[in-house]
Amino acid sequence: VQAEKMAEMKNQEEEENRQKMLLAQKREEGKKRRLEQEKANLAARSRDDLRCPIVVIMGHVDTGKTKLLDKIRKTNVQEGEAGGITQQIGATYFEKKTLLSQTAKLNETEKFDLNLPGMLVIDTPGHESFTNLRSRGSSLCDVAILVVDLMHGLEQQTIESLTMLRNRGTPFVVALNKVDRCYAWKTCKDTPIRDALKEQSEGTLQEFRSRASDAKLQLQEQGVNSNIYWEMGDEDWTNSDFVPLVPTSAVTGEGVQDILLLLCQIAQRKLWKQLMWCANLQCTVLEVKAIDGLGMTVDVLVVNGFLREGDRAVFCTLDGPIVAEIRGLLTPPPSREMRIKSDYIHHKEIKGALGVKVIGNGLEKVMAGTPVMVVGPDDEVEDIKAEVMSDLTKLQDKLSTDKKGVMVQASTLGALEALLQFLREETKPPIPVSAIGIGTIHKRDVTKISIMNEKGCPEFATILAFDVPVEREAREQAEELNVRIFTADIIYHLFDQFTRFMEQLTEKRREDAAAIAVFPSIIKILPQHVFNTKDPIIVGVEVVEGILKVGTPLCVPALGGLHVGIVTSIESNGREQETARKGSSVAIKIVNETNPTITFGRQFDASHSLYSTLSRASIDALKSHFKEKLENEDWRLVVKLKKIFNII
User: What is the pairing mode between strands 575-577 and 562-572?
Assistant: First the structure.
């Protein structure tokens, strides 16, 4: 019977393995087919079939990014933003006729033949900690507008945006915004910038020119060649690293036409290769939100390819991939942003590039910032699933492996990446992360991270929540379990909170450790400077090695580790000081509470060197809290003293 059972089990195992092999093989075949299909699609592109270029607006806080976008869009989003900084990627689609009507006046002189199907403008958050969301922004984007404040020139973030755009090779236009702040500027509402400049007085023009040339100089320092766009010669246009400058005013609208036309020109002249529409689906989730009457919907940006009603789409969630049928595709009416509620238009199919709302079942857990793929007739579901999850699996692999660290929760995958990158690379020292999540914070999250208290790392029993709501029950639970939840809707405020908390904690730990930590030192008594032989002993000494600190216990190893007492004060030239380093001669006062009768000259004398009394605990305290206070030679002395005191 036993043998039969064993044989049966073995057969079962073999069968399972065979199934696994088959699955893996099918997955590989599917992947091969998919890659071949993608290659064929790339080869089939043509210059006659262009997609909308995707435009991103970048720049420093308060340079007027959203205002400029509003001016282009003629609507108003800015007031509804956290800290006036745009924090969710939204997209606005401009039809070809909108572009033509908005640039009509300028085009009378420029005579440019527009053959783009339209333009898609993305609203990306502007701050250095969003490098990631922005790199998502900029890898999704074809061309960028970098907004520079004419009054302030380049600022920290502008420079970071610049570096990013150049790393990604994204072409861009620089908008020198706030020209209307020039002295005595005469407003010419919504006109091309050259017409507006003709109206200005000589003094205003002089100020404008000097500020514009300052901006050119600063860009030059960053290695960017630029020129005001109508002063650029033909060779500047063909020279790919030359950047056009467009003076604009987001408030009164001068120069906005110029920007639109320039973007179209750049797209058609330089980018037509990457703007050729391709059948490979490129699609990213921008946001997941509940809409009255529609349930959970997913806002996606389709860059290339088709999305059709009834497609089997694969989405990425924290619990693994999900396959859902697309029940509906909605777009807002033309020239309105996707974030503001208005009546939707239903579609049977969508061709990139376009922002759409997808309706389907079970989309609650889909994460913002993840890719979407569709299972075609020849595709293997498993292969598509693995492909969709690849971004998240990479993130999870990077988490702190030693299982000690804070929990990070954000509203989108991009924001989560931004946070993690910041904690890993920008913060000194890096803050370890042991768990991640997307969306609202629940009780279970609090319970999960509270084990850090048991692991002896109470500082990591912390949740850094970026732009996500916290349930009331979760807050109460956090109070009980001693978990801190730091929330902020602007990333850099979050780091400030946590860093402040860590600084206080380190300071407190230092104070606690100072009682145990003993700095290593060897001192020699100067026999001609003995001022008091009995308790308290006051003698002049020379520090032979290490650092002598107030509070250091001293002993004489040569006399079986005789405890001489604790240093209670150090004086040099009549001045009290906390420490004395190697080579200095100082007077010290030694108090011995356990043995007040100890006398210099009786139990010990100047022929004996005094040593700091080290123990295992004091060395550990030094290592963990005062590492930077000791030089290399001091650590060598610690090693030497370890041998003398037989510390393991």
Answer: antiparallel
Would you say 300 and 331 are in contact if contact means Cβ atoms under 8 Å apart? no
Which residues, in sequence order, are CB contacts of 599 under 8 Å at separation 6+?
Answer: 533, 534, 537
Segment 268-282, tens digit of pLDDT:
877 777 788 877 787
pLDDT range class, residue 401, cuts 50, 70, 90:
low
- Reading phi first (left if > 0) and then psi (alpha if -120 to 50, else beta), residue 468 is in beta
C-alpha span between 529 and 527 (Å, rounded): 5
Range 206-225 burial, b when 16+ CB lie within 10 A, else e = ebbeebbeebbebbeeeebe
The predicted pLDDT at position 133 comes to 37
Helix axes 256-270, 65-73, angle to 10 degrees: 90
Q: How far apart are CA 395 and CA 411, in angstroms?
A: 15
Distance of CA 345 to the CA centre of its chain: 36
Q: 420-445 pLDDT, tens per residue? A: 777 777 666 777 888 888 778 888 88
Binning the chain into helix, strand and coil, the percentages to the nearest 5 are 40, 30, 30
pLDDT score of 450 more than 80 = yes
Asked if 148 and 255 count as a contact pair (C-beta separation under 8 A), the reply is: no
Instruction: Classify each residue of 268-293 as buried b or exposed e, where b means 16 or more C-beta atoms within 10 Å of its C-beta.
Output: bebbeeebbbbbbbbbbbbbbeeeee
SS3 143: strand
CA 32, distance to chain mean position in Å, is 35
- Tokens 């958050």 belong to 125
Q: How many CA atoms lie within 13 A of 113 on its CB side?
A: 0
pTM of structure: 0.62
Query: Pick from 235, 322, 274: which is nearest to 143 by CA?
Result: 274
Q: Which amino acid is at 326?
A: I
Whether 569 contacts 544, CB under 8 Å: no
Please answer whether residues 374 and 328 qualify as being in contact, where contact means their C-beta atoms are separated by less than 8 angstroms: no
What would you report as the CA-atom Rg of the chain, rounded to the nearest whole angstrom? 34
Sorted by sequence, the CB contacts under 8 Å of residue 131 that are 6+ apart come out as 160, 164, 418, 421
